[in-house]
Amino acid sequence: MSSYILGIESSCDDTSAAVINGDGVILSNVIASQKVHEAFGGVVPELASRAHQQNILPVVSEAIRQAGITKEQLTAIAYTRGPGLLGSLLVGTSFAKGLALGLNIPLIDVNHLAAHALSHFVKESADDDVPEFPYMCLLISGGNSQIILVKSPEEMEIIGRTIDDAAGEAFDKCAKVMGLPYPGGPHIDRLAAEGNPDSFKFAKPHIPGLDYSFSGLKTSFLYTLRDNLATDPDFIERNKADLAASLQKTIIDILLDKLDKAVKIHRPRHIAIGGGVSANSGVRNAIAQYCEKKGIRAWIPPRRFTTDNAAMVAIAGLMRLTPDHTSDFSLPPYSKTTI
Ligand code: KG4
Fold first, then answer.
1. What superfamily does domain 4-128+305-320 belong to in CATH?
2. Considering only CA atoms, which residue is closest to atom 7 of ligand 1?
3. DSSP string, 320-334
4. What is the pLDDT of residues 62-109, one digit of tens each?
5. Which of 45, 136, 206, 221 has its CB 3.0 to 4.6 Å from that of 268, i.e. a possible disulfide?
């Protein structure tokens, strides 16, 4: 009998459902993004939770329909248990539990960060290549900047993390002070393509070990704008491409500096990237070039798998599903955790 895993993701502001088959091949991946937050310049938790409630049923129905199956053919349900916004997680968690109970099929709780790290196992066709364990994963998003050693689907070690802002926050907050819409990362990416990355120099952190910090860069960027605007009110408008390119280069330098340190210690043969910031053109090129130079195999996700999506939740669930799996329907969602 064929198996079909339904993944459900609702940790932040994307409601997503996906179906994969037992070989990890994607059959559908539906994402409803919430536009309601744009007006507020960031995600408003209560609004996110309400939007998930509106979206969850149509999104799950559409994922099942696009997969060409009926809900009775599902063999397991994987859902994001955390970390994320509690009100958002509650919607996906409750829906997944209700559906799994109703269909009497296994329920698998998935850690959102682990799902990002395993997203490269989602296949377009059964004979697609996948990463080899152990590998290193650079997880860069709006909420996280981490270097993870992925030893197996169950065993992951975070060897570096941000001590303040995430890389995505650095993009978004700097974009905001430039007057760009939220989320600013994609706008910086687009502008950077037309700018000179060596036009401006911004502060880089000097913290020991493999941890990241982006708050100093944010302040340095803000002060550059403030000082120049004092004498030139059109400074941002006239320099926006160069500012974006220089900001993007600084973020990439910071990311690559710690990644290189981690590589020298752990000597991985494969490096994967994931999270919203891994959609950035500069980041993708820099990682590809770095890996080529070092003889490391790079895993750069298709752009549609860089943001939050349920296909990665489904694959993480499939990789954790054992024949004697027992579902725990009493597990509550969690907002914060390590892997
Ligand atoms: O993983 P994700 O969708 O969810 C959160 O963790 O929130 O990541 C969202 C982040 C935002 O900060 C957004 O600005 C950033 O990913 N992002 C980008 C690009 N696309 C999305 N940052 C830079 N360049 C991009 N092309």
1. ATPase, nucleotide binding domain (3.30.420.40)
2. 142
3. H--TT----TTPPP-
4. 999 999 999 999 999 999 999 999 999 999 999 999 999 999 999 999
5. 136
